[in-house]
Amino acid sequence: MDKDSAPGSEGWRLGLAPGLHEWFPSKPERPPPLTVLIALLWQSLDDHPGGVAGPVLWVGRSCWPYPLSLVRHTDTVADQHLLDASVFIDAGRSRSAGADLVWSIEQAARCPGVRAVVADGSGLTMAESRRLQIAAESNRQRGGTPIQIVRSAHERGVLSASRSRWRVTTEVSKEHDDRTQGWTVELLRCKGMQPDAGGARRWCVRREHGSGNQARWEPIVGPASRDGDLDDTVARRHRPSAQSQTA
Amino acid sequence: MLIEKQRQRQVVVQCCRRAQSHGVRSGMPLVQATALLPARQGCIAPFEPETSRRSLHRLAVWAQRFSPLVAVDDSTERPDTLLLDVTGCDRVWSGEASLLHAVADSMRLLSIEARVTIAPTIGCAWAVARFGSSDTSIVSGDGVRTAIRDLPLESLRIDPEICAQCRAIGLDRIAHLWDLPRSTIPARFGEQPLLRLDQALGQAIEVIRPIRPAAPARRERTFEGPTDRLEAVELILQQLLEELCSDLATRECGVRILRIELVRSDLDPLHTQITLGRPSRDPQRIWKLIRPKVERANLGFGVEGVSVHAPEIGRITHDQLLHDTRDREPDDHQFQAMLDTLRNHLGNHRVVRAMPRESYIPERACAWVEDTAGSTSRNTSDPTPRERPTLLLSPPERAAVLVLNPDGPVSRLTWRGDEHRITSCIGPERIEGEWWRGHRSTRDYFAVRTDQGQWLWLARAIDRKRWFVHGIWA
Asked: I need a surface site. Which of A62, B27, B53, B202 has the fewest CB within 10 A?
């Protein structure tokens, strides 16, 4: 995607671009937005039909999905490509676990042929995120590796060198006995993009319960939420993290 | 009885002694053999030459405890004989008789019907073991002629056709053969009978070709004096590793597990081990994995010697250089190398893949398997259930639920201290306990949506009448 261009209806594909992407749930107690990430990874596999699916690494136990949710069903067959490509890495909970975690993500991102890395990034510092961003772009001839970092909601004020920041909110539906599951995905910040640039910055991921993991992305037309704008301002002014958390 | 199909009929190839006592002989049709045996007795299995050959080879390796030179006799069509060169070994067993009994007793313990003979020549031992009167016998140095005098000609390992020709002119026993003038025999029956006779009598040379077990993949070096210089130790280790890898290259194998031992001057030896996902014989790659462990090693007052040992090796096919460098293989190699690095740093159990299992119980339906080369086969026959949450809570969390009518939809849920109104409830999906594993609890699963828009996977344990939140579509 070109720099300075506004994202369009397919703008969520920015999340597949090589580099560090941070994902925030809407509330601190909410689990990592795994359904949206799985939908994103499926999209990445579908973009290369028939091609060799490179491995997908899940680093850190807190962001391991339930493996059976990685299977996608069509009418007749169960598509296990994503499950077969997945390798799960537990970076541990010992004292040195933080260092091990960043080291593991970096090793994975520097390895050529890796399709994507999904990692637990809670407590990631600015220096570490810069290190990971460099690692993600290290395989230039292969276009680099996208790293999806899952962070907790209260870390939104922490600065990082990531390429983009996303927030995932569950969609509240008023209809009763509706089978549709929906999530709103919001692009909070993106390197090289003006916060007031036009175009869609919110998308909706919808899937029918029982449809066998088939998700679809739809753009949401309308102004971005207040909260998102605030986050951009914080990032541009490089305010220290303690202040931005109170802001 | 072991049977084989020969020309459209089943023929007994080998049979045990009990069957023999009923009159069964090898070469007999199966129908006749079963008629001879008492009703419904006898175990019949197909004869597999390859399996038989392999187990004989294993037995030969085992028999090296009696003699360093053990060979599988391959002079017959179906090898069934082990040859042991026990020259000088009798002293260890204090006499030939006790050696003979040791061998016979061990065979009996292994449930193998064996006939054991110690004789001065291979031919004599072969003949007496097969056609002699007793199961165990010893032929002394000057008793060869008397021992084989009355044995049939087959005992000399002569081809059956030649034996038949001899029998046609009245030559039955070995003694008949040596009574004839030597010059007349080759013209009539060829070279073989005389050669075999000479071998049995010790007048012609016969050697056994002993099996040689593969030497363990191991290299070691001792320093002149203890050294506490890490550079020296590292240099020697690298050299040993290269030597080991070139050894393995000739055997078309690669290292799966590598163990390094540092013999320290006044401390216990230090052992370090690495495991590789796939066998490799690239010294650079292995060195990269083992180096951090060596650097952390406590050399104490100095290292006296180092050894590099590969207790587990795996087969690698020939490497072919690729013309097309964009080929995928190098990528896969690098990925495996990266996983090895992670495995050796974090531990084997921390790098896993998920393997679906044939179970409907959510927590059992998937197994975490260590990602090694041996575990690539996947069970894809069983279709996995269509709808599962992306996050499974382990253990399930207790929840309080308000249901308006029994088995009806859930209307309110209290979970993690918050009360949620349920706006959508899909279910129940009943999952029976696997009673054959002693897991009897039956559960009903509901997918519910809270008023916050979150989708949860609720479980009701039928027998305990309790509700749990088991998963989240996160």
From this structure: B27
Instruction: List, in sequence order, the alpha helices (H) in B39-191.
Output: 49-62, 96-109, 122-131, 144-148, 160-168, 174-179, 184-189
pTM exceeding 0.90: no
Name the residue among A30, A33, A68 with its Cβ closest to that of B388. Answer: A68
Count of C-beta atoms within a 10 Å radius of residue B134: 9
Question: Could you report the per-residue pLDDT of B8-49, keeping only the tens digit for each?
Answer: 788 888 877 778 888 888 778 888 888 888 776 677 788 888
Predicted confidence (pLDDT) per residue in B68-115, tens digit: 888 888 777 778 888 888 888 888 888 888 988 999 999 889 888 888
Judged against a pLDDT cut of 60, whether residue A213 lies above it is answered with yes
- Nearest chain B residue to A171, by CA: B453
Cβ B366–A68 below 8 Å, yes or no? yes
pLDDT above 80: residue B367: yes
* CB nearest B331 (choices: A35, A108, A113): A113
Q: Residues, chain B, total?
A: 474
One DSSP character per residue, B205-251 reads --------PPPPSEEEEEEEEEE--HHHHHHHHHHHHHHHHHHHHHT
Tell me the domains of chain A and their CATH numbers.
11-246 (3.40.50.300)
pLDDT computed for residue B336 by the predictor: 83
Please, what are the domains in chain B? 2-46 (3.40.1170), 60-201 (no CATH), 218-318+330-340 (3.30.1490.100), 347-380 (no CATH), 391-473 (no CATH)
